[in-house]
Amino acid sequence: MAIEQKAIQELLDKEPFRPFNIVTSSGKAYPVNNPRLVVVLRGDVFYAYPKKDRWTTIAISHITSIDVDSPVS
Known about the structure:
Layout: H1 5-13, E1 20-24, E2 29-32, E3 38-40, E4 44-48, E5 55-59, E6 63-67
Antiparallel strand pairs: 1-2, 1-6, 3-4, 4-5
């Protein structure tokens, strides 16, 4: 089951912000420790790797869960 765009955006906008992981169907986890490094687009999530000059897009249809209880650092 894919996660909805709105659910991700709500987590990014929440005050105070709580770090979370975006988990994909491949099992890869993307840690979100800074909400300014993630942008929710129409069908994708733009993800900038912290402290690196790299970024990727994650298809929302491939996001299987959001882990707010045990984020990866």
